[in-house]
Amino acid sequence: MPNFKSAIKRVRINEKKAVANKSKRSELRTVLKKANLSLEAPAADTPDVIKAAQARLDKAAAKGYLHKNAAARRKSRLAKAVNKLG
């Protein structure tokens, strides 16, 4: 346990941020899972689901929940899967 007041506060802040980041990453995984499922069984709303997933990846990269290269890689894979469907 830290001894300095600022270090104690920093531990509290980091714990709070870790919980928030965990929920945001979980939400992102859910959106990506829906997008992948919509690619397996294409429906009328598939393009909307894919666009939402790509937008969510951009936002996650901007907010720092996900590294920008990881977000770009995942977006690229989604686009590749969409193009493969034709």
Annotate the secondary structure layout:
Elements: H1 5-40, H2 46-63, H3 68-85
Helix pairs in contact: 1-2, 2-3
Structure, described:
- With 86 residues, this protein is mainly α.
- It has one domain: Methane Monooxygenase Hydroxylase, Chain G, domain 1.
- It has three helices and no strands.
- The longest helix has 36 residues.
- It starts with a helix and ends with a helix.
What are the defining features of this structure?
Methane Monooxygenase Hydroxylase, Chain G, domain 1; 86 residues; mainly alpha; elongated
Structure, briefly:
With 86 residues, this protein is mainly α. Helix content is 84%, strand content 0%.
